[in-house]
Design goal:
Helix content is 56%, strand content 16%. By secondary structure, the protein is an alpha/beta fold. The protein has a 6-stranded antiparallel β-sheet with strand order 2-1-4-5-6-7. A 6-stranded mixed β-sheet has the order 8-12-13-3-14-15.
Length: 579
């Protein structure tokens, strides 16, 4: 639930705070006062597109902050905590969005800077916004199908996801098979070039790191005499010098003498014992070096034939790197990619036959799932239409009915079909919501048979039906009562109040009949006292609320007759809510 919303620097709103309640919150005000900025602020707070044109030049940035309670949203609390956000002790969380006049945007959740997508994720769980644009959206066939699929429930959604996966696989095989057949000549030419390259690389058979190893070996072979001399002199020095005899002590013997001498006095002074241990370590190290020098001299090769072979091998590797990559590792990677690409270029009869079998198998699966989808949608369409019709009866359309019709889909241009079944990413169906305005009237699609007021009520009826099945806890309606008046307006207010028993409802309205049902009434008012016109929001109660409803009724907030009418309207709404 949204507890509080603060907006600064957005449109005509300089700095204002909306304190909201758990029931129905009505937001009213003169035309141009800034009611739309409240909904715009909500959109920004929950990840909507940032429009720098709505940012006030002073202070040069707009900021929207909202405090939400997350009772029952355990998974969302965990998601925010895992992302680094902090929840308050009462389980609420603070969200904020800042937009500069240059168009830069920043988002914070629980005091932590986060991507704007995180705000969108929170909004999807907690808030559903419905405005006049939603009335236009519901006229689109794709949106009508989405509404029916949503109504059909989670098991239907799983079936739809299974269908989409099968459809994606089927289309991939269909497109792959068509491409292989259509471009067989070009694929064959590319494959021949790749095979030539792979043959050349296979003959050389380069190994990872080989070029560096060969370079090091060449350097040793080219400087073999100098290396031999250095190693021999070092070995002689460790053995006692160039003119050493059998009686001449070598380095190991001298070190051994030093160790024994020190150990003999270690009982007198332990420090000499420690030095003796270190001398022993030196003796071991010198012995190891002497052995390695001997092995090095034995392995040192100055074979001219080996040197020539290495020159030839390096020349062969350079020939590959000139053609295929910058180094040997790149050549090996090119070969791996070429082998993968060769498999993709295969146009052999055997492969085409296998692909065709796979196409037929997947086509049967897609057709079977599409049939199940159609059956499920047809069943859900009857229930959905009946429930929406019941709600319309309570919205001053007692004789109207809504029909949800499931129609065969029309295939798009160059779109493959399965045995004349026009399948698409969402099945083989088109969904059409039709309105029968009164008995004897034809069932017409919404875009042809519904007025603006009727469309508003159909959309509200659909939302009431969805609300009974759960959904986000906060619902926002932005002037969805446009084009409605009289008894229909009262019924919309009554329905929104009923919806507010289980959901938090925010409604931006110009109808006093709707605002009268609110548990909290907020008024957006202009302030023209300064050099720049600004707007703020205040809560109105008792006399002030009656005066606001009187203004909405007749444009006369101080009229005794208007105030009396407003008080009567409030009394009726109060009795309705209590009843």
């Amino acid at each position: 639930m949204l507890e509080e919303l603060r907006i600064t620097g957005l449109g005509v709103i300089d700095d204002t705070t909306l304190r909201l309640t758990a029931g129905m919150n009505a937001i009213t005000g003169e035309t141009g006062a800034g009611k739309t900025m409240v909904v715009t602020g909500l959109g920004l707070l929950f990840g909507g597109r940032a429009d720098a044109g709505r940012v006030r030049s002073d202070p040069g940035r707009a900021m929207v902050e909202g405090r939400l309670t997350l009772d029952g949203a355990d998974s969302l609390q965990t998601r925010i905590s895992d992302a680094g956000g902090e929840l308050d002790d009462d389980g609420s969380v603070l969200l904020s969005r800042t937009v500069t006049i240059e168009g830069r945007s920043r988002a914070h959740v629980g005091g932590r800077s986060m991507p704007v997508a995180m705000l969108s994720e929170v909004g999807e769980h907690l808030v559903a916004v419905h405005g006049q644009q939603d009335q236009l959206r519901i006229l689109r066939p794709a949106e009508q199908r989405s509404q029916l699929d949503r109504y059909a429930g989670p098991e239907h959604e799983k079936l739809l996801e299974s269908y989409r996966q099968a459809y994606t696989q089927w289309r991939a095989v269909v497109d792959d098979l068509a491409d292989r057949r259509r471009n067989a000549r070009e694929r064959s030419q590319e494959a021949d070039l790749l095979k030539l390259g792979l043959d050349e690389i296979s003959r050389v058979d380069p190994q990872p790191g080989e070029d560096d190893d060969l370079k090091a070996e060449v350097q040793r072979l080219e400087h073999a005499e100098g290396l031999r001399t250095a190693a021999a002199l070092a070995a002689q020095a460790l053995a006692g010098g160039v003119e050493a005899t059998d009686e001449t002590p070598d380095a190991t013997g001298l070190i051994g003498t030093a160790r024994r001498t020190l150990e003999a006095q270690a009982g007198v002074d332990p420090a000499l014992g420690e030095l003796a241990a270190r001398v022993e370590e030196a003796a071991t190290l010198v012995g190891d070096v002497a052995s390695e020098l001997s092995a090095y001299l034995s392995a040192l090769d100055a074979d001219p034939a080996r040197l020539e072979a290495i020159y030839e091998r390096r020349a062969a590797l350079r020939a590959l790197t000139r053609k295929y990559a910058d180094d040997v590792e790149g050549v090996i990677a090119w070969a791996e990619h070429a082998r993968t690409r060769l498999a993709a270029l295969d146009t052999s009869d055997e492969l085409l036959e296998e692909l065709d079998k796979e196409r037929l198998r997947l086509a049967a699966q897609v057709a079977e799932l599409a049939g199940r989808l159609t059956a499920a949608r047809t069943e859900a369409a009857g229930r959905f239409g009946d429930e929406v019709s019941v709600e319309l009866a309570g919205l001053a359309m007692p004789h109207a009915r809504v029909e949800i019709v499931v129609l065969p889909r029309t295939a798009g241009r160059d779109e493959p079909a399965i045995d004349e079944l026009a399948v698409g990413p969402d099945g083989a169906d088109e969904i059409e919501i039709r309105l029968i305005a009164h008995p004897g009237a034809p069932a017409l699609p919404l875009q042809k048979g519904a007025s603006g007021g009727e469309l508003s009520r159909v959309m509200l009826a659909i939302e009431v039906v969805f609300a009974g099945a759960g959904g986000p806890p906060t619902l926002v309606f932005d002037e969805v009562d446009a084009g409605v008046g009289g008894q229909a307006a009262v019924e919309i207010g009554r329905r929104l109040a009923r919806l507010a028993r289980t959901h938090q409802v925010l409604v931006v309205t110009h109808l006093p009949q709707v605002a009268a049902f609110a548990d909290r009434h907020l008024v957006v008012a202009k302030d023209t006292g300064g050099a720049i016109t600004t707007s703020g929001v205040k809560i109105v109660e008792e006399t002030d609320r009656a005066r606001e409803l009187a203004r909405m009724l007749a444009g006369l907030p101080d009229s005794d007759l208007g105030i009396a009418h407003a008080e009567e309207l409030l009394a009726v709404a109060d009795r309705e809510k209590r009843g």
